């Protein structure tokens, strides 16, 4: 049954306007984006198909075009719109981080890094460069690796921090395995970077491991 034939109290758009977006399910939110269904399938049905196929919203956002358009009723135009929404979300979070001290916006930091790194199939090493007031100067991908590891060069990290005129830095990398637990190599790398940056008076505030929607903080676990 088309959504327009549903009782108004059940229609996603009316529910959002009446009660706010947080009251909608993932499928209902995605249905508002899809907008129209196909013969025999409402926009909510298509949204549920996407969520099942890609294992949740984050999977939908990170799906390649070739797999996205395999869902009947969806194509390059919707894919482009979805990627635009994702990019606008990242930029909005980036603006929030630049408005004040990063450490007072830990939720925004985590949301930003989850969007940037959470579902990449390869490892990425990322850095947030901060000024003396912990305000964001730059957010940058420094290294990209394979499915299981990445090569991080200490000299290049120090050079990037100095170029950004950073007073401190927050590092992050993802675990494509989905397990946000630091390896011994992660711990050694963190200690090496902290020591090297300390020699040029740049503080390492944290190192975050992102695995899907979960994050491990070295600072919170006493490892920095």
Topology summary:
Elements: H1 12-19, H2 26-34, H3 43-54, H4 57-62, H5 65-68, H6 76-99, H7 106-117, E1 124-130, E2 136-144, H8 154-163, E3 168-174, H9 184-198, E4 203-211, E5 214-217
Parallel strand pairs: 3-4
Antiparallel strand pairs: 1-2, 1-3, 4-5
Helix pairs in contact: 2-3, 6-7, 8-9
Give an overview of the whole structure.
With 224 residues, the chain is of the alpha+beta class. It is 45% helix and 16% strand. The chain contains 9 helices and 5 strands. It has a 5-stranded mixed β-sheet with strand order 2-1-3-4-5, with helices on both faces. Strand 1 and strand 2 form a beta hairpin. Helix 2 packs across helix 3, helix 6 runs antiparallel to helix 7 and helix 8 packs across helix 9.
What are the defining features of this structure?
5 strands; 224 residues; alpha+beta
Summed up, what is this model?
By secondary structure, the chain is an alpha+beta fold. 45% of the residues lie in helices and 16% in strands.
Given the C-alpha coordinates, what overall shape results?
Answer: elongated
Low-confidence stretches: none
Average residue pLDDT: 83
Provide the helix percentage.
Answer: 40-55%
Strand content: 15-25%
Strand order of the largest sheet: 2-1-3-4-5
Task: Let me know the largest β-sheet.
Answer: 5 strands, mixed
| Rg result | 20 Å
Distance between the termini: 56 Å
Please state the structural category: alpha+beta
Query: What is the string of SSEs from the N terminus onward?
Result: HHHHHHHEEHEHEE
Could you tell me the number of beta strands? 5
- Specify the number of helices: 9
């Amino acid at each position: 049954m088309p959504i327009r034939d549903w009782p108004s109290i059940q229609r996603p758009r009316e529910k959002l306007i009446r009660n706010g977006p947080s009251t909608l399910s993932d499928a209902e939110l995605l249905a508002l984006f899809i907008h129209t269904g196909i013969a025999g399938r409402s926009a909510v049905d298509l949204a549920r198909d996407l969520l099942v196929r890609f294992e949740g919203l984050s999977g939908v956002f990170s799906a390649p075009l070739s797999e996205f358009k395999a869902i009947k009723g969806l194509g390059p135009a919707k894919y482009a719109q979805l990627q635009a929404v994702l990019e606008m979300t990242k930029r909005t979070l980036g603006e929030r981080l630049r408005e004040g001290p990063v450490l007072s916006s830990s939720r925004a930091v985590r949301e930003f890094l989850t969007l940037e790194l959470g579902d990449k199939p390869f490892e990425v090493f990322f850095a947030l460069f901060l000024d003396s007031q912990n305000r964001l100067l730059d957010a940058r991908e420094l290294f990209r690796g394979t499915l299981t590891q990445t090569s991080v060069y200490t000299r290049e990290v120090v050079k990037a921090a100095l170029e950004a005129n950073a007073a401190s830095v927050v590092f992050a990398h993802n675990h494509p395995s989905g397990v946000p637990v630091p390896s011994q190599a992660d711990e050694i790398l963190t200690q090496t970077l902290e020591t090297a940056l300390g020699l040029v008076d740049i503080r390492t505030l944290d190192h975050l491991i992102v695995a899907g929607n979960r994050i491990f903080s070295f600072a919170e676990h006493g490892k920095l």
